[in-house]
Amino acid sequence: QVQLVESGGGLVQPGGSLRLSCAASGSILGFNTMNWHRQAPGKEREFVASITSAGRTNYANSVKGRFTISRDIAKNTMYLQMSSLKPMDTAVYYCNGWRPGIESWGQGTQVTVSS
């Protein structure tokens, strides 16, 4: 099974930017979709953004226009470029890969937006 490892989280001031990475141990084209989710303290995990094997993207309304999902197929890596960060974006961010019968999750990376 393909393993996923997130990196790039950290502490950033409101209005700042971060880029998260999700490195896969195998080809990311093996997944029908790859996604970013996040979970804030005391809240349920929520969808953030997705990219299909064909390259189509989708975003939660709360991040549309501020976050950009992308991938580097040669590096087997997915990214989440986050800009204009707000305190409400504070959460553990998880990457996820899915195809019928198979789902993989990373261990998560903490993003904290605070002054």
Provide an overview of this structure.
By secondary structure, the chain is mainly beta. The protein is 0% helix and 53% strand. The chain has no helices and 11 strands. Strands 2, 4, 5, 6, 9, 10 and 11 form a 7-stranded mixed beta sheet that branches. Strands 1-3-8-7 form a 4-stranded antiparallel beta sheet, with no helix packed on it. β7 and β8 form a beta hairpin. The mean pLDDT is 96.
Distance between the termini: 40 Å
Low-confidence stretches: none
Q: What does the average pLDDT come to?
A: 96
How many helices? The count is 0
Radius of gyration: 13 Å
Helix content: under 10%
H and E string: EEEEEEEEEEE
Element layout with pairings:
Elements: E1 4-7, E2 10-12, E3 18-24, E4 33-39, E5 46-52, E6 57-59, E7 67-72, E8 77-82, E9 91-99, E10 102-105, E11 109-113
Parallel strand pairs: 2-11
Antiparallel strand pairs: 1-3, 3-8, 4-5, 4-9, 5-6, 7-8, 9-10, 9-11
